[in-house]
Amino acid sequence: METKVVEDKKNKFVFEIVGMGHTYLNLLKNELWNDGHVKVATYNIRHPQASKPKFILETDGDESPRAALSSAIGRLKRLSEKAKKEISAIR
């Protein structure tokens, strides 16, 4: 996965993600909304075959957007590991 920072300010972080579609981006967006400091978490894909998804993240300033993003990714990793263990237990 390749990322490109478009804008990096105190309360706003905008980046493009190459090779990601709606599935992962929706998971990330929804997990970011669980953070009380996040004010905006959304993404835009202008055209699925011709553009890179652009993700926009804004916080209230008490937490940096990069910290919020890092925390959300960590929570998603833990959730993924938990799901993997539960699915393995079914076999």
Which labels suit this protein?
41% helix, 91 residues, alpha+beta, Gyrase A, domain 2
Q: Could you give the topology of this structure?
A:
Elements: E1 2-8, E2 12-18, H1 22-32, E3 38-44, E4 54-59, H2 65-90
CATH fold label:
Gyrase A, domain 2
Spatial strand sequence of the major β-sheet: 1-2-4-3
What is the CATH architecture annotation? 2-Layer Sandwich
Low-confidence stretches: none
Strand count, sense and barrel status of the largest sheet are:
4 strands, antiparallel
What structural class do you assign from the helix and strand content?
alpha+beta
- Which shape, going by the Cα principal axes? flat
Question: Beta-strand percentage?
Answer: 25-35%
Rg computed from alpha carbons, rounded to a whole number of angstroms: 14 Å
CATH class: Alpha Beta
- What is the tally of beta strands? 4
Name of the CATH homologous superfamily:
RNA polymerase, RBP11-like subunit
| Average pLDDT | 92
Polypeptide structure, described:
The chain is of the alpha+beta class and about 90 residues long. It starts with a strand and ends with a helix. The protein has helices at about 20-30, 65-90; strands at about 1-10, 10-20, 40-45, 55-60. Helix 1 crosses helix 2. It is flat and about 45 Å long. Strand 1 (about 1-10) and strand 2 form a beta hairpin. A 4-stranded antiparallel sheet has the order 1-2-4-3. The protein has a single domain (about 1-90), classed as RNA polymerase, RBP11-like subunit (Gyrase A, domain 2), CATH 3.30.1360. The longest helix is centred in the last third of the chain and has 26 residues, at about 65-90.
